[in-house]
Design goal:
Layout: E1 2-3, E2 8-13, H1 16-22, H2 24-27, E3 38-43, E4 51-54, E5 59-61, E6 64-66, E7 70-73, E8 76-80, H3 91-98, E9 104-108, H4 122-125, E10 130-134, H5 136-148, E11 153-157
Parallel strand pairs: 9-10, 9-11
Antiparallel strand pairs: 1-4, 2-3, 4-5, 5-6, 7-8, 7-11
């Protein structure tokens, strides 16, 4: 199982005056020129539903294991999603996601990336919400990044039943 726990960081570029005070070209032992400096700040995401690990058969949210399809939002408990295979997807499945009124939807399509037919996501496009399709592992990583940025992102994962 891949461990998805890692420190969350915000990136803030330092002002030009602050960069000048640090004199990176003179104080740095490397020979290349530094044109901008980024300052890292640790952020806390423990109060949110965070993907802490994943593998081909399931996902961990805040250290709790799930092996069935589900919808994850940052501030609410995971919701079961009655999808056993990608080919089962219907407009009703996406209406369930649209009811949560997310900013963006990350659709984990299983162990490989597949794309959903546009007519199935009409309920989301009517709300001007984007749907990004990717394999489950990429979806988990993307969800964590967007959630840490404070976005109201919905993660819909399809855990295919054999």
């Amino acid at each position: 199982m891949k461990n998805a726990t890692m420190p969350q960081f915000e990136f803030n570029a330092l002002s030009k005056s602050r960069q000048a005070k640090l004199r990176p070209d003179k104080d740095c032992p490397c020979e290349r020129s530094h044109t901008s400096i980024m300052k890292l700040h640790s952020t806390q995401t423990q109060k949110y539903q965070t993907v802490t690990a994943y593998d081909e058969r399931g996902v961990e949210l805040n250290l709790q294991r799930f092996e069935r399809s589900l919808i994850v939002l940052p501030e609410t408990a995971p919701t079961p999603w009655p999808v056993d295979h990608f080919d089962q997807l219907s407009a009703e499945h996406f209406e369930q996601i649209a009811a949560t009124i997310p900013d963006v939807v990350i659709l984990g399509t299983g162990n490989k990336q597949r794309f959903v037919h546009p007519k199935l996501i009409n309920s989301l496009t009517a709300q001007h919400k984007g749907v990004e399709c990717m394999d489950n592992q990429a979806a988990c990583r993307t969800y964590n990044i967007l959630m840490a940025e404070g976005r109201k992102v919905a993660l819909a994962l399809i855990m295919e039943v054999a």
